[in-house]
């Protein structure tokens, strides 16, 4: 972890939680431990409200600009595709745009906490916003830590 940066108690608690399950959110220990927490307590670890409302801006503030940019560009590309279909069909797809953008916000909120943990504790800052969310990528993270 960065020694020159002092973490707030909120982030320290999140990082301690991730450390307590070995830093692997695909592990059975993580699932067991997260289920033991109340619903609103669980939200502290798996959802970031600032990232939901501010998206790429908050990701950049945390230093996660690569992951934030990938999510932002992906959402933009999907919006352009919907716009082309909308133009071709002559319809009004306002609800589709709204759904896409809510999904983008949800992805930012879901990715932010663990991505920040990987950046600050493990020193990993790649372009993949879903790094560590699958067993395969979690295995790669563990292999980098060991080797």
List its traits:
8 helices
Low-confidence runs: none
Largest sheet: none
- Structural class category: mainly alpha
Radius of gyration: 17 Å
Number of E strands: 0
Number of helices: 8
Helical content stands at over 70%
Please, could you describe this protein's structure?
The protein is mainly α and 147 residues long. Helix content is 72%, strand content 0%. The longest helix has 29 residues, at 94-122. The mean pLDDT is 91.
How would you sum up this structure in a few lines?
With 147 residues, the chain is mostly helical. Helix content is 72%, strand content 0%.
Describe the protein's topology.
Elements: H1 9-20, H2 28-35, H3 39-46, H4 49-54, H5 56-61, H6 65-89, H7 94-122, H8 135-146
